[in-house]
Each structure stands twice: as structure tokens, then as C-alpha cells.
Amino acid sequence: MKRIEIEIMRSSDALKAAVITWHKAKSGKRVTPRISFGSIEDLFSAITEKRLELLRHVAEQQGTLNTRQLAQALGRDYKNVHTDVSALEELGLIEKGEKGALTVLYDEIVIHAGLTEAV
């Protein structure tokens, strides 16, 4: 199962984690892909409920829908779905293939959010 971890952490901690991950990868060790956000608000603005719904739908239809077909299947406005797909592409969670076919890159998203806010 391909998974990605999403974390809430201070930027200084994110930098330290990136260095550790880089060293692990350089030495040939397997590393879990990670995305870090500075606050829960940043996370929820980047990965909204609608975007999670979109990811789930694309995962079920893996490689069979383009953005227009996805908007129709979800009953959403094309422009909004296009914006969501672009944002998820920037995060590395979704990819467009041949003829715009959408593919989700991970089977699982694990979110780590501490109870105290990262500052």
C-alpha cells in the first residue's frame, strides 16, 4: 500500500525532518513521503472536505476520468473541480496522465496533528 503522511509542524521542525529524510533516501533506505503544514488551518485550506471527496472518487475510478468527467460525476462546477485538481496536483496527491486521465498517487493518507498548535 502506498501511503503519504501529512503533518502539522513548525517550519524549523519541518526543515530538520526534510534533512533526515534526505539522508535516509541518500543511504538507500525507504522513506515515507510527507507533506508538512504550519497549522491545522493551513492543512484544512489545502485539503478540504471536497478535495478529499474528489480524491476518493478518483481512487475508485483510477485513470478512467478526466477533470470534466469528474465534475459531472460529482455534480460540481467544472471550474471548482479544476481548481481542486490543480491544488492536489501541486501537493503531489493526484496526477494527470494521457488525455487528462486522473490518477491518485497514494492508497492512504495519514494525517498527524498534535493537540498543541505548531508555531
What does this 3D model show about the protein?
With about 120 residues, the protein is an alpha/beta fold. The strands form 2 sheets. It has a 3-stranded parallel beta sheet with strand order 2-1-5. Strands 3-4 form a two-stranded antiparallel ribbon. It has a single domain, classed as Winged helix-like DNA-binding domain superfamily/Winged helix DNA-binding domain (Arc Repressor Mutant, subunit A), CATH 1.10.10.10. The protein contains 5 helices and 5 strands, in the order E-H-E-H-H-H-H-E-E-E. Helix 4 packs across helix 5.
What's this, in brief?
The chain is an alpha/beta fold. It is built from 5 helices and 5 strands.
Tags for this entry?
globular, single chain, alpha/beta, Arc Repressor Mutant, subunit A, 5 strands, 119 residues, two-stranded antiparallel ribbon, three-stranded parallel sheet
Would you report the number of β strands? 5
Task: Give me the CATH superfamily.
Answer: Winged helix-like DNA-binding domain superfamily/Winged helix DNA-binding domain
Total of helices? 5
Summarize the main sheet.
3 strands, parallel
Determine the strand fraction and express it as a percent band: 15-25%
Please estimate the helix content.
Answer: 40-55%
**What top-tier CATH class fits best?**
Mainly Alpha
Label the overall shape: globular
Q: What would you report as the Rg, rounded to the nearest angstrom?
A: 16 Å
What is the level-2 CATH architecture name? Orthogonal Bundle
Q: Give the class from helix and strand content and strand pairing.
A: alpha/beta
| CATH fold name | Arc Repressor Mutant, subunit A
**N-to-C terminal Cα separation, in Å?**
32 Å
Mean pLDDT: 88
- Tally of structural domains: 1
